[in-house]
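My current task is to audit a protein record that another person submitted. Thanks in advance; the entry in question is below:
***
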Amino acid sequence: MVSKQIFDLALALDWQYDWDFIGMLEKHAQRLGLSTYIIWPGNLDETVVKIKNQEFSFRYLFDRASDSTPEFLDLQKMLLEQGAQLFETVENLKWASDKATMHLEFIHNGIHTPYTIILPSYETEQDYLISVEDLAMLGRNFIIKPANTTGGGIGVVHGAETLQEVLQARQFLDQDKYLIQEIIHPLEKDGQRFWFRGFFSCDLVQCAWWNDKTHLYKELTRQEINRYKLKPIFEVIKKIGEVSRLKFFSTEIALTEEGKCVVIDYVNESCDMRIQSRHFDGVPDIIIDKISRQIAKFIKDKIR
């Protein structure tokens, strides 16, 4: 009889650009004494067979694949049935990824957002009317974005001007709700656009400059935080953590000329973790390393 191998942590990925992040997370987990096993499309079938044959079992799953590859969702269900713990539940991810839901939750919890009109799906209400007054509140140009479709700007229309564009956008993803939002213009000072990407990982809050036009990151220093009085941004990210109920996400926040922190991209539950040392538009390596270390510590505490 083959003896069962019991691993502390399974790390699942299906995107080639996740290898650096998963590698960092594995390194920190192993330094804490955890045994690890990476599951990816190349070994998924083999791993499933070994689980079914009781050759493998896992205590904990960190899953970066099930939201985009159905076979990994089947793997997740199998591991849960065998008693494994899960970093984020499917229910929590789905709830937090709905921009319409998060918009209302943010307003209820005092988090500033752009002026927004939430539209039902085209499938359920084709002839939904927007009043002239509401349209005027958006300004001359506005943004149209689907509530539940995320990643790569799918379905997002920037600089829209007409109701015809709204109608066309709603038909593109006709089963999804849509948000129509005013365009937020950040403070510009000392050669900087005051637009930031915040990262929340198991109560650790980090922030970086992120240019919404070039999509490039730059490290935010402690001196800059103090100089520009940016600590309120970190408090907003903590509050988003409470509202979203997620352990790991990113968000976009703009600081306006009036000094208001406005959350733009509410909760990105599947953060792009490409590292800056390999990708010109990637996240600074030091931020990803700290995220990895924090998540590894969290998991270590959960499976003691």
